[in-house]
Amino acid sequence: MDEVMGLLDTAVTSPWFYLALFVVAALDGFFPVVPSESMVITGGVYAASGQPELWLVVVLAAVGAFTGDHVSYLIGRGSRGRVARGLRPGSRRAAAFAWAERQMAERGGLILVVARYVPGGRTAVTLTMGAVGFRPRSFSIFAAVAAVSWAVYGGLLGYVGGVAFEDDPLKGVAVGIGLALSVTAVVEGARFLRRRRGAGAAREGAEAGKVTDRVGALSER
User: Fold this and answer.
1) Which residues contact 202 (CB under 8 A, 6 or more apart)?
2) How far apart are alpha carbons 137 and 123 in whole angstroms?
3) Is the model's pLDDT at 213 over the cut of 90?
4) Long-range contacts, 198-203 (Cβ 8 Å, 24+)
5) Does pLDDT of 56 surpass 80?
6) What angle do CA 95, 193, 183 make, to 5 degrees?
7) Angle, in degrees to the nearest 10, between helices 121-131 and 54-79
8) Which is more confidently placed, 24 or 187?
9) 205 alpha-carbon distance from chain centroid
10) What is the predicted pLDDT for the residue at 82?
11) Cα maximum dimension of the chain
12) Over 69-134, what HEC string results?
């Protein structure tokens, strides 16, 4: 464990950490298996001890995320629907794209800000926005808001964990990631309840329609 902590300390406090953070945050925009949020939180934890600088962690994470979102948007824009047509019905990716399309219809560009905190949702939204021809200028504005808010959120989560466990950075990282997972769980729970209520309302509406049809049929007799 001491060797692991030594390697982690060396990696995070190195000047190269800033470049790695930018690259990982950018890749996560169109390759969502890269753990950019964990890296931002780890940077925030160590920033509580003075190295790296918290403001640089936030800035580079935000710029990387902004860049990655635009790469994903351009991929979607270049496909002009090929991405959506290539989705396998019933797959998780198809479900993510369907969710992105519904949310765009309801909320417009604000969905990009919300999707920053939904696992897998960000890439689906940015690709979909590109594929449907969402205005580039508007996309950049919402992408900037999403990237900055996400970077500040991740950096501060880590910083809180680092302050609480200044002598044990590993516990600080665990606390920061735990808080992030808790927020994600709350968001997913709220989405699940909303979908459930929506499905229940739809069933009630269908039943009410059937009753109305029956009453109408009886009155005609």
Assistant:
1) none
2) 18
3) no
4) none
5) yes
6) 85
7) 40
8) 24
9) 33
10) 65
11) 85
12) HHHHHHHHHHHCCHHHHCCCCCCHHHHHHHHHHHHHHHHCCHHHHHHCCCCCHHHHHHHHHHHCCC
- Residue 176 pLDDT > 70, yes or no? no
Q: Which residues contact 9 (CB under 8 A, 6 or more apart)?
A: 46, 169
Threshold 0.85, pTM exceeds: no
Separation of alpha carbons 47 and 135, rounded Å = 37
Burial letters 155-184, b for 16+ CB under 10 A, else e: bbbbbbbbeebeeebeebbebbbebbeeee
Averaged confidence pLDDT in the chain: 76
For tokens 């927020």, the residue is 183
**Per-residue model confidence as pLDDT tens digits over 79-113:** 765 666 666 777 776 776 777 777 777 777 888 88
Q: Which residue has the tokens 């580079």?
A: 60
